[in-house]
Amino acid sequence: NNGVSVPREYLEELLSVNPEYYGTYRIIGDYMSAAGDRKAAVQMWKTALQKETAHKKDRLELERKIHKYDY
Predict the structure, then answer these.
(1) How far is CA 62 from CA 3, 26, 39, 45, 54, in A?
(2) Could you tell me which of 57, 56, 32, 59 has the C-alpha nearest to residue 44?
(3) Are 44 and 29 in contact (CB under 8 A)?
C-alpha cells in the first residue's frame, strides 16, 4: 500500500456502494494483501469469486491469488 493507510470506514463504504461487483472485493483484497493482512485478502478474493465476473481471466487471477496465500 506504499505506506498509505485507508480507514476501514472507506473500505466499508466502497462495499456498500456496489456490493454485487466482483471488482470491489478484488480491489479491497489487493489492498489488504499489500497491507499485510493476507487472511482478510483471501476472504475478499473468495467473495469476489462468488460474484459474476466479466472475463474468465479475472476468475483465474483471483484463484491464483487465493492459492498463493490460502494456506
Answers:
(1) 24, 8, 14, 6, 13
(2) 32
(3) yes
CB 17 within 8 A of CB 53: no
pLDDT band at 2 (very low <50, low <70, confident <90, very high): low
CA distance 25 to 42: 10
Rounded Cα gap, residues 38 and 49, in angstroms: 16
| 29: DSSP letter | H
CA pair distance 69, 71, nearest whole angstrom:
6
pTM of the full structure: 0.86
